[in-house]
Amino acid sequence: MSIFSDVEEAQPIEVFHLVKVFNEDDDPSKVNLTIGAYRTDEGKPYYIPVVKKAESVVLDGTLNHEYLPILGLESFTKAASQLLLGDITQRQEEGTIFGVQSISGSGALRVGAEFLVKHLKCTTFYYSIPTWENHHLIFMTSGFQNAKTYRYWNEETRSLDFDGFCEDLSNAPENAVIILHGCAHNPTGLDPTEDQWKKIAEIIKEHKLIPFFDNAYQGFASGDLEKDAWSVRYFLSQGFEFLCSQSFAKNYGLYNERAGNLTFVLNSVENVKAVKSQVTMIVRGMYSNPPNHGARTVSTILNNDVLKNEWMNTLKLMTDRIKAMRKSLRENLENLGTIGTWNHITDQTGMFSYTGLSASHVEYLRSKYHIYMLRSGRINICGLNTNNINYVAEAITDTLL
Ligand code: PLP
């Protein structure tokens, strides 16, 4: 007998499970298009040079390992919220915009969601169909009771189902939390246009819904940090109160350092003290205190114009490579006469492409060609490079015959 006898085994997490299977696969032509991490044209993880430089500053021997404040390193949270929202120093000084350091983007969502349940009495949240698969788990674990969805991907046209999106939002009950991808939507790579964002904001305002932006890919949609922040900044300009999570996993390549930020935007100075104190209690009860290294590294870069410039140039190079791979995949498929239309590959932005391949196509590609992608047909474009792109295009062509 064991006290653990009745524990049921959970399903494996698809993306991490696939990475494990991929690593165990000894076929020389294998291709990993699963996990959302940047790869160089040599198929290698990218240790961004300016991050390495900043780390040498962080590790210069003058730091100790004392606790950070519960809400995190202020030079980091301030700079991170500014990166997101632009010139907000006055709001930061009065306190109506503040950041909370988090365990990367996931941790920001988790703390924010628990705050919304406990202190704004939220019970219902909405996420796009499809979305990053962890949204559901994070929000349910935080105490939300109703998980609802809004339409997003139109399977037939392989584009945004904007009418469906608006209709579902319009039917949401007051105080429902709406998870919005700030840019580079995962997994579809489709973002609303500026006019569409305006309409979304209008509906959210009219129906008294609460926007919760998830910004895990700032810089990865267009290569331009400002452009990628347009949606969130628009909501700010319209006087919304909202939350926004930020991840520095992707745009700094700091996946395992868990550097993230949760920005609160409030309308009244009067509520700041209470809100901050309650977020402090949530963090205290969840993990007590944030880690130092990733946040200090990001802060070192964001607070130094020379390093920040170098980082922005690198981001541009990374997104240029992604765009080149999109173009090349589409061209390859079209030149091979592959069944179907392939303009969606270049219409989409960010790291991911929602290919439109079915689960059985995905299975065929894995078993016959050792090409790995999510069951949904989502591929990480960064996994493509000049050495494997022809192979992948030919394999897709064969799969669709
Ligand atoms: N949000 C989205 C849409 C994501 O795709 C991810 C990562 O894949 C995250 C949030 C959070 O990632 P992390 O916790 O690694 O920062």
UniProtKB/TrEMBL annotation:
UniProt catalytic activity: L-aspartate + 2-oxoglutarate = oxaloacetate + L-glutamate
Domain Aminotransferase class I/classII large, chain residue ranges per copy: 29-396
CDD domains xref list: AAT_like
Any one GO molecular function term: pyridoxal phosphate binding
Enzyme Commission (EC) number: 2.6.1.1
GO process terms (BP): aspartate biosynthetic process
Similarity section: Belongs to the class-I pyridoxal-phosphate-dependent aminotransferase family.
Subunit structure: Homodimer.
Protein name as it appears in the record: Aspartate aminotransferase
Record organism: Acyrthosiphon pisum (Pea aphid)
Lineage of the organism: Eukaryota, Metazoa, Ecdysozoa, Arthropoda, Hexapoda
